[in-house]
Amino acid sequence: MMKLTKLTEEEIVSRLGQADGWSREDGKWIVKSYRFPAYMDGIQFVQEIARISEQELNHHPFIAVDYKLVRLRLTSWRAGGLTDLDFEAASRYDAVFERYADL
Hints:
Distance between the termini: 37 Å
Helix content: 40-55%
Number of strands: 4
Family: Belongs to the pterin-4-alpha-carbinolamine dehydratase family.
Number of helices: 3
Shape: globular
Radius of gyration: 13 Å
Strand order of the largest sheet: 1-2-4-3
Enzyme class: lyase
Order of helices and strands: HEEHEEH
GO molecular function: 4-alpha-hydroxytetrahydrobiopterin dehydratase activity
InterPro entries: PCD_sf (IPR036428), Pterin_deHydtase (IPR001533)
Strand content: 15-25%
């Protein structure tokens, strides 16, 4: 298992500057909403996110589905805040979403 180290404030600010559309919430979360053309597209996206989270990252986002809008929230409980793993997951989720951009 990867050792998780909580990022400094400066590291978080820098990473957020590179994480398109992600924002900080309550100091300990990064959050992004994704809009889809159809409900089932969002559900398919959630299934892909769940597979990556479980099988590849062993890191799981909070997921909210509101019709065509999917909201993801990430933090690292074991580290007590945001870590490299949160930003790696965010990047991976964005890459999955790119496949839906042309729908």
